[in-house]
Amino acid sequence: MKLYNAPAPNPRKVRIFLAEKGIEIPRVDLDLQAGEARTPEFLAKNSLGLTPVLELDDGTTLSESVAICRYLDELHPDPPLFGTTPLERAQVAMWNRRVELELMDTVGHIAQHTFEFFATRRIQVPAFAEAEREMTARKLAWLDGEFADGRPFAAGDTFTMADITGMCAAMVIGLLEIPVSAELKHVNGWFDRLRARPSWDA
Amino acid sequence: MKLYNAPAPNPRKVRIFLAEKGIEIPRVDLDLQAGEARTPEFLAKNSLGLTPVLELDDGTTLSESVAICRYLDELHPDPPLFGTTPLERAQVAMWNRRVELELMDTVGHIAQHTFEFFATRRIQVPAFAEAEREMTARKLAWLDGEFADGRPFAAGDTFTMADITGMCAAMVIGLLEIPVSAELKHVNGWFDRLRARPSWDA
Fold first, then answer.
1. Do A98 and A69 share a domain, yes or no?
2. Which band of pLDDT confidence, cut at 50, 70 and 90, is reported for residue A137?
3. A42, A75, A108 - which closes a domain
4. Pair B185, B132 in one domain
5. Could you state, in chain order, the average pLDDT of each consecutive group of 10 residues for chain B (202 residues)?
6. Which of B95, B64, B15 is CA-nearest to residue A92?
7. Which chain B residues contact residue A82 at CB under 8 A?
């Protein structure tokens, strides 16, 4: 098994996941700026030219960070990061999607619509990036209300995949220097708990 | 168990899923135009004010269409719509995400940034809708290349959740009258197969 990796939020999700599980997988580090995810060889592994990609020993390739993590979670069930009962698994899927849609996608759009790096990949609309910057404040406020019940992690008492997606959102928020109001005590507490994990530096 | 439902693509995913499984769940139909997803009672079930919501007999609520479908898939495993082995499950998750990100989100943005209905929910940027309309053609072309191996469904030989997401994307493409070039034989073939399923009208 081999992980095609790069210094970007989605491969980072898989690196954090591996660190939380205590698994090591050989990595191939790609230089995205040098176009190493756009070579014919790599496009044969993921036609979207995106990392991460997990290559199995028979050559089968998997892309999409959460799909890769789901696969690894089945091979290495402890500690469980996708829940242990049908209801827990649905709640983790729900919260991963909420953190993804409400937080990660929103801040991701800001980068995708302003960074030169993404110019060949999409039609950039800077006004959309500006709108998403404003939306981030609304979404952080919504999330603060959700955490007001005092639970430590996105899906409840246990750290899960939804928190890993939250770690990547927090990293992008830091990178883009998006202010997180000190009044949002619950969200700030969550981000602090996430930053304190050894896997933060994965 | 009770399903809070509305005439919109995400609840439709769950309705198609139920039709494919042959399951019936009592429904509460909400009138979104009349603000029935924005009442305090409904916001207590989903603070995002979005449908679908599955309410369990003990009052627990689940939102996010794919999370709801995952839960129902565990309770009613036949026919399997999320794969049956770790690799198949990862491939379905990967393809559901690809159809979601590359197709459904792209066409969804067009509606969200132009329809009056969404004006209170987000900061609309019509130029972004226009960009996403152009991106749809690129993404359909990418998808056509993916289907060039002749497989009938998104994740392989079997109809899965990824195809249900595709059905909703195809519906939005029809609604927005986005042209799908006749040259894209594989994508058109896929859409035809999806439209021919009895669950299309769910």
1. no
2. very high
3. A75
4. yes
5. 96 98 98 96 97 98 98 97 98 98 95 91 92 95 96 98 98 95 98 98 94
6. B64
7. none
Strands B53-55 and A61-63: unpaired
Dig out the tokens for A147 from the structure.
């955490």
Whether residue B71 and residue A60 make contact (CB cut-off 8 A), yes or no, is no
How far A151 CA sits from the closest chain B CA (Å)? 16
Contact by Cβ (8 Å): A155, A91: yes
Query: Once rounded to an integer, what is the mean pLDDT over residues A65-86?
Result: 98
Least Cα separation, residue A146 to chain B (angstroms): 8
Question: Closest chain A residue to B76 measured between Cα atoms?
Answer: A86
pLDDT for res A171: 96
Kindly give the pairing relationship between strand A61-63 and strand A53-55. antiparallel
Q: Is residue B81 part of a domain?
A: no
Please give the residue range of the domain that contains residue B57: 2-75
Residues on chain B touching A64 (C-beta within 8 angstroms): 93-94, 97-98
| Tens digit of each residue's pLDDT (9 = 90 or more) over B1-31 | 999 999 999 999 999 999 999 999 999 999 9
Contacts of B71 in chain A (CB under 8 A): 86-87, 89-90
Q: Judge whether B80 lies within some domain.
A: no
The answer to whether B122 contacts A131, with C-beta atoms less than 8 Å apart, is yes
Q: Is residue A196 part of a domain?
A: yes
Nearest CA to A113 out of A133, A128, A134, A135 is that of A128
CATH of the domain at B63: 3.40.30.10
Q: How confident is the model over A92-120, as pLDDT tens digits?
A: 999 999 999 999 999 999 999 999 989 88
